[in-house]
Every structure is written in C-alpha cells, then in structure tokens.
Amino acid sequence: MSDTTQFRTTTQHMLKESKVYASHTLMGGLAGFESPIGLDRHDRINALRTGDIGFVHSWDINTSVDGPGTRMTVFMSGCPLRCQFCQNPDTWKMRDGQPVYIEEMIKRIVRYKDVFQNTGGGVTFSGGESMMQPAFVSRVFHEVRKEGVSTCLDTAGFLNRNFTDEMLDDVDLCLLDVKSGDEKTYHTVTGGALQPTIDFGRRLNRLGKKIWVRFVLVPGLTDSEENVENVAKICESFGDAVEHIDVLPFHQLGRPKWHEMGIDYPLETCEGPSKELKARVKDQFESHGFVVY
Ligand code: SF4
Question: One MF term in GO for this entry (predicted)?
Fold first, then answer.
C-alpha cells in the first residue's frame, strides 16, 4: 500500500471531526518499516505468540487525540468486535496488517522520545484492538518505557485476559471504551460481551492505573437515559482510576469505508447527536461526579 492510503486522518475510537484530527496529525503511514515477507499461517501464529513481529495497520503522530501531549499512535490490525459505528473496518482482520519487526517499532518510537518528553506525550497502541497482539505490544511498552517513553493502551478491554498483571505494569494510562451499559445493548452495539470490559476496569483500578473512559454517543443506539446511567455506574465501579470520561459524538466519517469494503452499514441513515442530547448525557455523567469532555 502507498503512503497515501496508509495515512490516517481519523481514529475509530475518537470520533473527532476530520479537519480537527488532520490539523493535529503530523505524519504517518508505514513508510520506512522493514517488513518480513512471505509469512505463512504458521509464521503468523508464532509471531503472535512471541511478539517478534506485530501486524500493524498504520501509525501517526498526533496531538491531543489519543492521550496527553504529542503522541505516536500505532494502529494494530485485528479486532474481535464488530461495532456498528466502527470507523475503520479495514483494521478488523489481522492478516490485512503489515508485519513489522519489534526492533523496528521500538526504534521508531524511541526516535521521538524528546518530543514526547517535552510535551508530556508518549506512545499509544490502538487498533483494531490493541490487546489482540499481547506479546508484541507489551514487549514494545517494556522496552520504550526503559527509555523514558510514557505508554498508553487504547482498548475495549474485551481481551484483557491476554495481558498478565506484569504486562500491565508497563501501561501508564488506559483509554477504555465502555460502549454500553448492559449486556443486551452492548451486544447489539458491538457483537461482543460487556463483562470483560467491566472486569478490566476494576482490575486496572486494583493495579493503581489511570483510565480515561470513552463512550460513543449514537442517537437511537446508545443514548437512552438508562444506558447512560448504567455506563456511569460501571465507571463508578472503577473507583479512583477514572480521571475523566470522553463523550464522543457519533458521525459519519467511517461510512465510505463500509461502502468500499462492500459490507452492510447498519448506521447508514443515523445522524450525529444534537447539542441538547450531548448536554443531557454530559450532565448525566457529571451528576455522578465525573469530569466529562
Ligand atoms: S473495537 Fe473494533 S469494531 Fe469496535 S470501533 Fe474499535 S476497531 Fe472498530
């Protein structure tokens, strides 16, 4: 793939206006990464186990998008969920990612360490689902942290059992998506189960980690008072770990990718939330004592 096609202007988790995101994004793609070629299924399974190689969709340098300061965000390939509002269905299959040697990734991240340190930034692993390639991500985190680079994991938490407590030692901040507040709605929204996310948030709290919760507000799907109330209660169960909640208004930036891939897009006619709806949801979370952005 060319640089242009790999360059990202949006992330699937932070549904920012594309113009805003683009203005915060300095560079990206997968240019310059030496890539192993001819990997068969056995090689891939082995790479997943050892973490010597990671399957990466793309990366970029951004500000104020995927954590504090200026950050390098690495979008890993592969995701077990199928969120109706996913902006990047092209990250779903791990085999569609580009294999990257772990040494290459570490070198690339450490190259920016002065920028990270000067801005209070660091590296964020996102996706797809960042916890789908646990050995690669945790080994990278371990190595770059030794160089003074702050680390952030952007995840839905569904696969948190892939990470031992020891692996989580190297995570400074977690951006945790709580996509809905009860199992039924969560399953409708994502195709997956909610409980692993709840378990993970509580586990992060026990481990003394910091969480920024993300909740995507989709009219007619996630916006009922009851659903928001349940999300707030789940966040309360994460204790002091939660620093704030990001309410991310749904919009249609992802629609062209669903069309390009020829898959049915369930939110084809859905519009973003009104100002009133955003204010109501913000108030609801604030009434539980949370800082809300
Ligand atoms: S969790 Fe997976 S399906 Fe859901 S928005 Fe993120 S990448 Fe898309």
Answer: 4 iron, 4 sulfur cluster binding
Answer yes or no: is the C-beta of 129 below 6 A from any ligand 1 atom.
Answer: yes
Distance 83 CA to ligand 1 centre (A): 5
Residue 146 within a domain: yes
**H or E stretch at 201:** helix 195-206
Residue 180 lies in a domain: yes
- 136: enclosing H helix or E strand: helix 134-146
Report yes or no on 282 lying in a domain. Answer: yes
Q: Tens digit of pLDDT for each residue in 167-205?
A: 999 999 999 999 999 999 999 999 999 999 999 999 999
User: Do the domain assignments include residue 239?
Assistant: yes
Kindly report whether the peptide bond that precedes residue 272 is cis, defined as omega within 30 degrees of 0: no
Q: Any idea what the CATH number is for the domain that residue 182 is in?
A: 3.20.20.70
Q: What digits encode the pLDDT tens for the residues 35-48? A: 777 778 888 888 88
Straight-line distance from the first to the last Cα atom of the chain, in angstroms, rounded to the nearest whole number:
36
- The residue whose CA is least distant from atom 5 of ligand 1 is 86
Between the alpha carbon of residue 170 and those of residues 3, 241, 257, 263, 282, the distances in Å are 31, 16, 34, 37, 32
Q: How many domains does the chain have?
A: 1
The residue segments making up the domain with residue 254 are 4-286
